[in-house]
Amino acid sequence: MGKKLPKETVKKEQAGEAIVRAKPKEIEILGLVSKEIDTNSSALRLKPYIALKYFNSDWQCFSDWENQELKQFSKFITTLSNFTWEQVYKSGNKIPKHGLAYTKYELKDVKSEALKARLESVKNQISEDINFFELRVDQNKLRVHGFQSHSAFFLIALDRNHEAFPM
Fold it and tell me: Which of 16, 81, 92, 137 could make an S-S bridge to 142, C-beta 3.0–4.6 Å?
């Protein structure tokens, strides 16, 4: 078992008075600073992964999705992890949109009040300069909402019926 942080260090970190250092392997796993950045000087070249820290099933849960939709979500995870963030962003630049169809939006434009409330509760917990966006899970209605930080796509909400922005 590895060394534990002293309680005093943890208390200082929680109070914003100290910095807890990550080990090199943790930095690599979390995609905070990586060899990719060293060689390319851009977070846009990082490969995304999905983080569920801000996900809450009070809006919609995976149990609401049908078997085929869950298979589509698994395919989405594979697709997302094979892209770079730059490729994800570019997927929203074409008309008609294609692939992941990255779509940045303002909270005021979300049509579902319940989803808007969910997103606003997360916005209050993160930096105000972070943008929310929608990604396409399939070519029909399946969407996910979240934000990017470093390598991570923080999944906040599932949108099985494209309720945030009805077609």
Answer: 137
> CA 149, CA 167: separation in Å to the nearest integer?
28
Instruction: Tell me the average pLDDT of the chain.
Output: 84
- The 3-state DSSP composition of the chain as helix, strand, coil percent (nearest 5) reads 40, 15, 45
**What are the pLDDT digits (tens) for 92-111?**
876 777 789 999 999 999 99
For residues 4-27, one letter each, b for 16 or more C-beta atoms within 10 angstroms of the residue's C-beta and e for the rest, the string is eeeeeeeeeeeeeeeeeeeeeeee
Residues in the chain: 167
Rg, C-alpha atoms of the chain: 18
For residue 68, report the phi and psi dihedrals to the nearest 5 degrees.
-65, -35
Contact 79, 100 (CB under 8 A): yes
